[in-house]
Amino acid sequence: MQGILLAAGYGRRFDPSGQTSKLLARLSDGQTVAAQAARTLCAALPGSLAVIRPGQTELAAQLREAGCHILESSEAEAGMGSALAHAVRATATAEGWLLALADMPWVPVAAILAVASAIDTPNRIAAAAFDGQRGHPVAFGAHWAPQLSVLNGDRGARDLLRGPDLRLIDAGTADVLRDIDLPADLPR
C-alpha cells in the first residue's frame, strides 16, 4: 500500500492573501500541521509520498524530515484531483493507495492502518469514518488506478467514494473528520 500525503493546496480559506500557509502553522506542541500529518502517515506506511507544488522548499524540508518522499508537481496547481493523479502515475506499480490530507494532523496511526488493511481486494475502496460520517484517510485498491490517474481539477476522488465498493471503517474518533481550514481551527 502506497501512502500519499496531499500537501499541494493553497489554503485560501486559512489566509486569503496567501501569505501564511496553514500547513506550516504551528500546533500546540510546536510541530507544524503538515509535519505532524506526515509523521503519522509515515509511521503507518513508511516511504509515503508527499505531493507539493513546486517551490515550497520549507514545506518539502519538513515533509522529508518527517519521512516522506517528495513529489513536486506543477500539475498540483490545478487542484487536488490533479495532484492525486500525478502521485498515482508516479507510483503506478503500487498494489493500492492510501490518501491522507496534510491539513489533518490528528488522524491516528491506528485509523491509517485500519483503512489500509481494509483493501482486501483490488476493487476495494475504504475510508475512515466516525459516527457514520466518512472522513480521511481513504484508500483504493489497484483496480482504481486508471480512474485515479486521470483525475483533474479540485474534486479529487470524491465521485469514486460514492460507489458500492466503499467500505467505511469506524475509527472510533472524530479526529478522522477534523481538518484545519481556518486559523480558529488551530488549538490554542
Structure overview:
By secondary structure, this protein is of the alpha/beta class. The chain has a single domain (2-180), classed as Alpha-Beta Complex (Spore Coat Polysaccharide Biosynthesis Protein SpsA, Chain A), CATH 3.90.550.10. It is 24% helix and 21% strand. It contains 5 helices and 7 strands. It has helices at residues 33-44, 57-65, 80-90, 109-117, 145-148; strands at 2-6, 49-52, 69-72, 96-101, 125-130, 133-141, 166-170. Strands 3-2-1-4-6-5-7 form a 7-stranded mixed β-sheet, with helices on both faces. Helix 2 links the parallel strand 2 (49-52) and strand 3 (69-72). Helix 1 (33-44) packs parallel to helix 2 (57-65) and helix 1 (33-44) packs across helix 4. 46% of the residues are buried.
